[in-house]
Amino acid sequence: MSIAEFLGFVHHKKTADGSAAAETETVRKIVAALDSMDVEHARYIAAFAFILCRVARANLTINASDVHVMERMLMERGGLPEQQAILVVEMAKTQSLLFGGTEDFVVTREFNRMATPEQKLALLDCLFAVAADPMISAAQDTEISQICHELQIEQDDLIAVRSKYREFRSVLKPPEPEA
User: Fold this and answer.
1) In angstroms, rounded to a whole number, what is the distance separating the alpha carbons of residues 88 and 119?
2) Count of Cβ atoms closer than 10 Å to residue 44 Cβ
3) Domain ranges of the chain
4) CB atoms inside a 10 Å sphere around CB 161
5) How far is it, in rounded angstroms, from Cα 179 to Cα 177?
């Protein structure tokens, strides 16, 4: 079974209008474009996406709005076209849900090795953007702090980026009044 089949992008039944064949061809084009990337850049993008999924998964699920924000981050920060960003996020999401607990530290350590300090701070900002949709939970805030530790990001840098997202932090919100 190919990764495209595993992710549900390849359908073996052909519709009357030939859309299954078109979907398969689209996926092949995207995969070919990803394959044509510089190996180091592809590793960087894969690790970046996986770490984004790590924060989204901190709430034990990755919802549609998390996916949308991650795709946008890969397009804006990773320079990927929309179709590639969608595929990369889906692949990272699948890997995160299947192997996240065992791969989190390994992937983050690899990202730490390949990323510049500026790229690490850009990732940190993206982590908060993913978590802030709609509210940064305590679990997500804790996960981001752990990632910062693994990436050797200074506490002052974490605080500076976190402060930009303070209105989204659930721990700073007053409790809802009881009815």
Assistant:
1) 18
2) 19
3) 18-169
4) 19
5) 6
> 35: Cβ–Cβ under 8 A, 6 or more apart, which residues?
none
CA 148-54-157 angle, to 5 degrees, is: 20
pTM for this one?
0.79
pLDDT in tens, 34-57: 778 888 888 899 999 999 999 999
Architecture of domain 18-169: Orthogonal Bundle (1.10)
Considering only residues 6 and 145, tell me which one the structure prediction assigns the higher pLDDT: 145
Q: CA 143, CA 140: separation in Å to the nearest integer?
A: 5
Question: CA 179, CA 169: separation in Å to the nearest integer?
Answer: 23
The DSSP secondary structure of 41-63, one letter per residue, reads: HHHHHHHHHHHHHHHHGGGT---
Name the residue with tokens 């659930």.
170
pLDDT of residue 170: 66
DSSP secondary-structure letter at 169? B
Average pLDDT over residues 87-115: 91
Picking from 25, 151, 15, 35, the residue whose alpha carbon sits closest to that of residue 91 is 35
